[in-house]
Amino acid sequence: MLPLEALQAKDLPPAQLAGLFADAGESLYLVGGSVRDALMGRDVAEIDFDFATSARPDRIAAILEGWADSVYRIGEAFGTIGAMKDGRSVEITTFRSEIYRDESRKPQVTYSDDIETDLSRRDFTVNAIALELPSFEPVDPYGGLQDLENKVLRTPLDPEISFGDDPLRMLRLFRFQATLGFAADVQAIAAVQRMAGRLSIVSAERIRDEFSKLMLAEAPGAALAMIVATGLSTYFVPELDKLAMAQDPEHRHKDVLAHTLAVVDRTRPDLVLRLAALFHDIGKPDTREFGPGGVTFHHHEVVGARITRERLRALAYPREIVDDVSRLVFLHLRPHTLKLGWTDSAVRRYVRDSGHLLDRLNALVRADVTTANQKKQRQIQEGIDELERRIAVLSEQEELARLRAPIDGHDVMTYTGIGPGPMVGEIMDILLEKRIEEGPYTRKSAFEIVRDWAISKGLDDPGPPADDEEE
Ligand code: ATP
Ligand code: MG
Q: N or C: at which end does the chain have fewer Cβ atoms within 10 angstroms?
């Protein structure tokens, strides 16, 4: 008995749309991830629903209009009409036999009249199981149910043909390895090894979306290792190839890549944090030097932050993600440079420099400790525990995240009579610096500092600050 009851609930899109399409004289099948996940016994309440139908896109849209909360046609060139209903996403695609994508032009889609042909063009057999509606009877021409049982990812047709038709499927292979915990079939892996270079014709946006899903799997390390081993990485993150060739004397792993993947698996599935884990040592190969004291990687965090920025931009990640990830790479050594004991001002600086990334930075630094040396391991973790305690104490005392001098630029201009410009910036920096070094102080002492500064600059003496500035 298949665990499909949950999918059949009356208030879910499959049951609702089954009737509408039957009334219109069109066949309708549920396909893709929702079928696969339901068959695996996963929770279906949250998932998106993909359908295949005999109806052409215009008819699909007409049928959906009366039912959906909104209908969108951005996928129409691929035969897909999308819709939202009660907060759930639905995508319905006309049976296809061929899709030819030239990323720079409109795709060429050939429609088909039967579900079997449509399923043959899908990526993997476990994604090529359809449920006929309204009966919910499985249609499984390529042995997907068996592969689901064996937890293996196979293409319905010859993998060379499949990957040639759409090279993104090579990356999807490892994405599903990571998210489903399935094994890639050996023939599929061999095909990736031969055909990896074809990934170059795929748009950065499509690669990015699959890569992000992979990075959010529970433990993406093994799939990432396969991506490097097959050579697929060469065509979208070539920096990882260099990590595989760089020995890492600092950790117990055989190379920097093995250490990196261990760090990725040790972080929680948050995209920014995971990407930072993947890139944190990316500057090592370019900064490696052999000196009398052994191998060094001076400033690898600076070089790494730059490489990270360039790579994530090339992968079309949005600006905030690029900024956040490269900032984390830049800062990932900070806690180590301060092992000798943290002064209050060092803690304030750490909080200020990491800003909204503080939690993730601490998580990254913890995950980065993969040494086999138990004592060293414990020392570093305790160092970060201590740092977090200090931050907690200090922030209670003084709302650290919003560090400001007690007076602002306006106060300075009114008091001294100088106009807006770099002079104001200079004294504001001095006031903020004092705040960071020494903690809170009064408005009156701030004006006294401004007065001394103004006199030292040869400006007119603004006179002693007013008494009511006393707090
Ligand atoms: P998820 O749970 O991540 O949504 P999914 O299997 O539903 O996984 P989608 O990307 O939503 O994946 O695609 C829906 C279905 O469309 C897939 O299950 C597969 O049958 C088919 N599909 C998607 N992308 C491709 C592709 N590039 N090549 C072939 N078939 C694809
Ligand atoms: Mg889906």
A: N
